[in-house]
Amino acid sequence: QVQLVESGGGLVQPGGSLRLSCSASGRIFNINAMGWYRQAPGKQRELVAVSTSGDSTNYADSVKGRFTISRDNAKNTAYLQMNSLKPEDTAVYYCNARGRLQVIPFDAWGQGTQVTVSS
């Protein structure tokens, strides 16, 4: 079983910055990808950014140039640096990790952390 713990959400003014962290724990053999998704009220969950084991990254068009995803593979941790935040970035942000527990694949989600961008 894999557990993801997120931190770093909060209230920030437009134009401000926040850094989210997501740490994975459990009998993890490897992690192929870690990513961040978000869900605003009344909307579907959407991909924000993902980082794969080959150091490839992918971003939603709405956050390109403002958000940066990074990983510390030794700590099974992913980060999302969010700069130039806008009110439309307000959402619950969820961490996702996919990989293997020895031969068993896993697809785990964190509990979510609230990000509110408002003056």
Question: Can you offer a commentary on this structure?
Answer:
The chain has strands spanning 3-7, 10-12, 18-25, 30-39, 46-52, 57-59, 67-72, 77-82, 91-101, 104-109, 113-117. The strands form 2 sheets. Strands 2, 4, 5, 6, 9, 10 and 11 form a 7-stranded mixed sheet that branches. Strands 1-3-8-7 form a 4-stranded antiparallel sheet, with no helix packed on it. With 119 residues, it is mainly β.
Q: Could you give a short description of this structure?
A:
The protein has no helices and eleven strands.
What are the key terms here?
119 residues, mainly beta, seven-stranded mixed beta sheet, four-stranded antiparallel beta sheet, elongated
Low-pLDDT segments:
none
Mean of pLDDT? 95
CA radius of gyration is 14 Å
Strand content: over 45%
Count, helices: 0
Give the beta-strand count.
11
Label the structural class: mainly beta
SSE topology sketch:
Elements: E1 3-7, E2 10-12, E3 18-25, E4 30-39, E5 46-52, E6 57-59, E7 67-72, E8 77-82, E9 91-101, E10 104-109, E11 113-117
Parallel strand pairs: 2-11
Antiparallel strand pairs: 1-3, 3-8, 4-5, 4-9, 5-6, 7-8, 9-10, 9-11
